[in-house]
Amino acid sequence: MSGLSGVVVRLAARSLPALVRARYREEWLADLAGAEEAGVTRSAIAIGALSTAITIDRLDPATLGMTLSRAFTTRLRAAAGFGLAAALLAIGSDAYAGFPTLGPLGAVVSVLVAVLAVGAVVATALALRIAVAARRVAAAILVLLGALALLAVVFSRVGLMLVVLAAVPGVAVLVALAVVLTGGRLASRRVRIVTGAAVPVGALAVAAVGLAHVFVWNPLAKLPGMTLAEIYAGLAAAGEGPAGGPGPWIGAVAVLVALGAAVYATFALAPVRRWSRFRTRRRLVALGLLLIGGVVALVFVPAFTMGMGIADAYATSGGDAAGSGGVLALIGMLAFAGTILVSFVRVEPGPPEGAPARA
Amino acid sequence: MEPLSRLTPATLDVLAALLGEPDRIWGLRIVGLTSRPAGSVYPILERLERAGWVDSEWEDDPARSGPRRRLYRLTADGVDAARAAVTRAPAARPAMRPGMAGA
């Protein structure tokens, strides 16, 4: 069942509400298989599938598979998830000047922001449509006001101030979101093992790269021609930079990250039956991404101290000179954006395999 | 069963084709019977089914492998409503193609 018509039919089916998706996919694929017998062209079937996907009433409970109220919440959550993730990436790009040095990698952020923004607009439009259909005027007005507020924050260019002011409460809010909003399917043993191993290893790796960036790569990049020993001697002589040298900072970051990694691994892997119902797949992923983003945020503390110390001692700028800074910031922002998306956006489950949808 | 907001000539053709078939009929066969494009017939069948005029089920044919065909039939109420609708619009008749009758 290959060919353009097959692709179109599959895409048309994919776009349908979850409850009828599998039914129409099978029906249209069977029609494609029997097209010659029926004397109908495959392209006509593809057009029929597209027409149905466009005209089907997506607000009818028979196709939605849920009440209008639940559909409204689902679309609203998707709108919030896409919108907040887009806003975070947009504000982060604005606040962090290192992305231009990343070339194509930096452009990835711009593309992501655009895709997420489109997702937010579509989800907002769907939520509004449901609110209007359900005559929930207050809800519709709130949705519009929320979307406008988000746009105002992004375009008012108060990004850096927000990043600084909202850092601690922002992470706390993300933790709450990642815990409260991430119900759903329980994680299998395999998922728990994979996340329980990959996330701690990833967090430690990001911390190692971050510390190397802050204390080795970035100073060398900012002060070309000087050795590391000369740079630190100069910092000490000027009374700038981290007090006591990099050692205590590296130790503190390592201990905190190791602690976070251990807590995560324990949550994911510990053979405690009572924890099972809390270990959903989305929660494990959201908390894992949050830990990785948190490590980047933690590394920002010594990075700020070192950057300012070098700037004062050597009359340079306080910003990053090494490309690794941009990579780290990118990892952190993507991790936080991922936490938001996984927490908010709920994928609608389809009917069980083989079960008749609207039978 | 819900009344239809509009009864287009294509809808009447589909209803007439369904009235002419006592058994369940393959959706794509209706496309052939009405000589209407699938782009018209598919959405009409979806609308008729959602409104309760038509119900559908999977074909149970062990001889045929792969994805199953969807078979359509007017509901009991749908038969009465379809007959009334088609009678009210006698000009609308399916352009039956030779040899296309039957599922």
3D structure, described in words:
The complex is a heterodimer of chains A (359) and B (103). Chain A has 359 residues and is mostly helical. In chain A, 76% of the residues lie in helices and 0% in strands. Chain A has helices at residues 4-14, 18-33, 35-38, 42-55, 61-64, 68-95, 104-133, 137-155, 159-165, 167-180, 189-222, 228-238, 246-269, 281-314, 323-344. Chain A is elongated. The relative contact order of chain A is 0.13. The model of chain A is unreliable at 351-359 (pLDDT under 50). Chain B is of the alpha+beta class. Chain B has helices spanning 9-19, 27-34, 38-50, 76-88, and strands spanning 25-26, 54-58, 70-74. In chain B, helix 1 (9-19) packs across helix 4 (76-88). A 3-stranded antiparallel sheet of chain B has the order 1-3-2. Chain B is globular. Chain B starts with 8 loop residues before the first helix and ends in a 15-residue tail after the last helix. Chain B contains 4 helices and 3 strands; from the N terminus they run H-E-H-H-E-E-H. The interface between A and B is medium-sized, with 29 and 26 residues.
* Oligomerization: heterodimer
Order of strands across the widest beta sheet of chain B? 1-3-2
Q: Return the average pLDDT of chain A rounded to an integer.
A: 85
Hey, which two chains have the biggest interface?
A-B, 29 and 26 residues
Distance between the termini of chain A: 25 Å
Q: What does the largest sheet of chain B look like? A: 3 strands, antiparallel
Secondary-structure element series of chain B: HEHHEEH
The outline of chain A comes out as elongated
Largest sheet of chain A: none
Question: Quick check: average pLDDT of chain B?
Answer: 86
